[in-house]
Amino acid sequence: MINFIKNISFALITSLLIVACGKKQDPQPKGPPAMPVTSYTVKKENAVYYDDYPAVVVALNQVELRPEVSGLITGIYFKDGSHVRKGMKLYSIDEQQYRAAYEQALANLSVAKSNLNKAQQDAKRYNELAEKDAIARQQLEHAQADLQAAQSQVKAAEANVSGVQTNLRYATITAPFDGTIGISSVKLGSSVVAGQTLLNTISTDSPMAVDLQVDEKQIGRYTELLNRKPDPNDSTFTLLLPDKTLYPQTGHLSLLDRAVDPQTGTIRARVIFPNPKGILRSGLTVDLRVMNSSASGSILIPARASTEQMGEYFVYVINGNKVKQQKIDMGVNIGDMAVVKGGLKAGDEIVLDGIQRLKDNSTIRVVPPQQMGSNAGQPGGQQSTGRNQPGRNQTGSDKPGSQTSPQGTNETGGKMKSSPAPQKQGVPQSGGSVNSRDSR
């Protein structure tokens, strides 16, 4: 009986050991799965784009017309807003009192000249008598003094004539130069005060100047443009009018101001534009486009390959099956591409599509573009993580030179902030091409 019990115990222990040894171990936890992405190989391209500057149209010469004499307006000889020629009669002020004063001054001059003639004759006669000792020396001296007084009176009368003649001339106001005159501030019969009442404003209308503020870092570049030989076919400076149409005439840099404004760190530059049709008006707000070409080549990437965080721009650089978040110095948009000023070099491989699911040091696998969606492999395709799209700015306004920045959405429904486009735009230079790599 004891042996039977021992045999049963041994069998149970053996069975338990067999079951324990045959039990499968729990699987080890796996890492996050590799994220599918498409890649793009960074390359250098020759690029031509435009820097946009808000600017104001100003007249090269503008004058406020104010009367030099007081009186009533008796005549207006132009049409408001019309083009006037230099010397054209514009206003007349009641000149009766000034003409009367002028005639009186002429009469006083005539009297003074008569007195001078008499004094000259007396002095001549007394000189002859004095030579013969026929008169006292005192009488000769008195005659010479009277002659000098008469001469001074003639000069005073002539000066008075000149003064009242000037007042009479100021009663008629003429155009100081060719230009466009504004709407008259006074009407017929209005009383005006010398040096105070504003009659009108006249300004030149062709050519016109466009003033802009240039960052002090750009002074070297603009100095080169200023010293460049003028070329009538040069399209470096163009204008976008307030209705966003392109002004048909090109301009040239005329001057840089004498000093940098220490408060803003900018210097004023002036660009001159022909204005044969009078489209440009003084005070008009425009966008000045300055062509910026890079002959040595620029780093260009699809704009949607970048993201923006707190005003800084990043891309994901591929290193094997890992990615590194790389900060870049983002430049301007050229269509669906963007210029990178720093942070990348030609030959770097970056993530193009799928960046919304990535973070630094994420594991990735590069897949063909068609596996990411019909639009994933094209630089022009609209990806939810795109940096911008051309034609509209962030506020939705159709402002050329600014690009739309649609906001991307990640898998959890959160929004990814897109990079804002600067007020610049451009086009790739002829012959350049930018293509994303379909697969590794």
Please count the beta strands (DSSP E, at least 2 residues each): 26
Structural class: alpha+beta
What characterizes the major β-sheet? Answer: 11 strands, antiparallel
The sequence of SSEs as H and E is HEEEEEEHHEEEEEHEEEEEEEEEEEEEEE
Distance between the termini: 77 Å
* Mean pLDDT score: 79
| Total of DSSP H or I helical runs spanning 4+ residues | 4
Regions with little confidence, pLDDT below 50 for 5+ residues: 374-440
Cα Rg:
44 Å
Seen as an oligomer or otherwise, the chain set is single chain
Fraction in beta strands:
25-35%
Global shape: elongated
Measured as a percent range, the helix fraction is 10-25%
Give an account of the 3D structure.
This protein has 440 residues and is an alpha+beta fold. The chain has four helices and 26 strands. Strands 2, 11, 12, 13, 14, 15, 16, 17, 18, 19 and 26 form an eleven-stranded antiparallel sheet that branches. A four-stranded antiparallel sheet has the order 3-10-8-5, with no helix packed on it. Helix 2 runs antiparallel to helix 3. The longest helix is centred in the first third of the chain and has 36 residues, at 96-131. The two termini are 77 Å apart. Mean pLDDT is 79; it is low at 374-440.
